[in-house]
């Protein structure tokens, strides 16, 4: 280790460095000559030979296919593979000797082909699709493949039940996919729950654990109604009305009643008010989280009043009462339990009215967790519809239709707890008034247009809504809504979209992963759940929770903001304990839409589906997913002449259209570096319906200069790590003791409070920003502002790239004074350190067995000013005119009087950043000018460009934006 000095005061630029600019004009003639030489060099560049394309993945629905249904798979390659052998095998036997690859172009940087093998309808197991010698995971073809997964859907909710032992509600062999033995647990949280101040106790046991963290939330109580509605819509299909535990009650009714009993218990305590009971504890079974004894200090407390949750509870209870009546009327209940369930239905109805009356009387109160975007009126819509269907009272229908009539289709990213409208409207439609039917169908048709035109952005049939929480939650919700549309109006396009969407979740995706636990050979293993007590052990192998659908791919890797878009990896908790929930989380709400689709498709059977007349295609050609952008960004959209009135969301600002290309701009200056975001566009079809498309982009970090430090964490939910909302963690305590870190306000600053309670003077507490790393290339210093009120406290700052570890602050721990002090630690002292993967480690150690506190603010990556700024000259492009398939080469010449090479030279075209590379790798002299170039194809439309650079010790140098080529 190298002992480096600590620099406490950031140096100003020395006068000798500032005077170097006097020599710049003398070099202009040499620079001009260099530009001419670069042009000659460009003319002689030869094209890089094309490599042989490779098939990387053959992806199928690992859940299988129904014999008479539409069947599709995807082939992912790194280039054109037309002509590759395509066939279907069963074991070693070829059953389909040839199939056709349908080229769908590039998606997410890969060439994608679709294989439609609908005509192959032979029931069997163990099939594989082989393309170019690469085989898919195995899949089955069944008479009705969905019927085989209905038991997993109810098994999931049974295993999420709170307050009961798993084995008591999951009979041996209940589901065809068995749960992992290690997720079975005893009855937990039998002491739910105490009042907010802990002085009273309420009997609030039961309900479902929302996800893997054992919380129970007021705003998610619509889920029980979804289960009841699933039975009501499809219970006349025997495969839907099954009674897997042989208790004389259909299992969907069992589950709806279990959820409703929790709500009844809550109403008995609070007369319609509904609260959250949040999760707590580590990766342990729920029976170990508390002592299960009422009145002790570990009783969980209520929090977060949710009037929206009360309204949703009313809807769920009414739907459950309806489901019980349906079961009795259709002879689905054993006669021995009819009287009991009639009583449950009556109590559910009366309690639904209690919740409804409370919600109506308290509409000015907090909407609460899992809030609907249109407010409490939207939550009440769900209750009004279900109460009308239960009681027949027209006042509920009138109230619901009034809300529906005033609803505009503005929600473009919806799960049902954000927008109860589509579910409620589909439920009301059969009994709505004539005008109500018109309004409902118009709204639901708009949603179908959105789903169809959003899922055609890629060949995979997924709703194009990637963000920092997996796409499967909104996607599964949309699939349920789309299936309901098919059930109401018979639009085969809707059924086709649902089938493709289900295949996506079961493996037809570029990761070749089934995100449904236990379904398929390559299904997700490392679910984010505290039921897996080995989740944080490197020897853990994950768990199977039958049928659990995880949230799936994010816009980017939460541990690496520079990763590709979109991103997914089945990463265990021990590798990513802070962020794993963003992509491997499951929940009762994520599952709800998936459950409805499984049961609905079971009832649909082999009904025909078709693409029909698809929405007019709308394609965003720039920016593309993964592009880094800066400043004003131009969106390019193409649709030919079939769409008019193009606009950019979310406010639908009109775009400028010419020659079948529409352009519009948005600005990203207010967004933090590495923010990933989505921009939506839409156009209007001749029918008046909209066609939508989306694209995702990433906000570029500032170029590393002395005046543009990169904030890593300001401890106020700002900075590359800080904006994720996490505190740092105490990973380890050497020689015993404990540590903790909290975000606080200190002297008016948002800061982190690092605390150590040592066991001895040898104790060391290790703190890190979880497993997060940062690309620190171009920066010379790690800078922190710190103070410590503890005289015995000592601090050490380490850095690592996963291979090398260095004591950045030196071998001797630092004594920090009780006054805010700036520290700059020299990163350049460690040339072997890979700054693209920089991880920060902070250690506390006390010189005596006394507590120590350290306050830290503004962890930044910084540079110091020196020398003169570089120049950019001779910037241009060729050829002067081109097509969308003709490469355009942009050139510039970089000159630096101090001989400093550029950190990077970037072309900024329409706000999108492209890295330029040296024309001659052997030219290392930048004093007399060095040429840089980049060659790319541009989408149709008019373009604007500039070039920017920095030498890291002076400010950003940028050319003036000018008009570039217009691509016809």
From TrEMBL:
Keyword Disulfide bond in record: no
Keyword vocabulary terms for this entry: Carbohydrate metabolism, Glycosidase, Hydrolase, Polysaccharide degradation
Domain Cellulase Ig-like: 55-135
InterPro entries: 6-hairpin_glycosidase_sf (IPR008928), 6hp_glycosidase-like_sf (IPR012341), Cellulase_Ig-like (IPR004197), Galactose-bd-like_sf (IPR008979), Glyco_hydro_9 (IPR001701), Ig-like_fold (IPR013783), Ig_E-set (IPR014756)
Bias-annotated ranges (Basic residues): 1-10, 17-26
Cleavable signal peptide: none
Compositional bias ranges of the Low complexity kind: 946-960
Residues of the Glycoside hydrolase family domain: 152-596
Positions of region (Disordered): 1-26, 945-968
GO biological process, one term: polysaccharide catabolic process
GO molecular function: cellulase activity
Gene3D superfamilies: 1.50.10.10, Galactose-binding lectin (2.60.120.430), Immunoglobulins (2.60.40.10)
Domain of life: Bacteria
CDD domains in the record: E_set_Cellulase_N
Record-stated family: Belongs to the glycosyl hydrolase 9 (cellulase E) family.
Protein's recorded name: Endoglucanase
Natural source organism: Labedella gwakjiensis
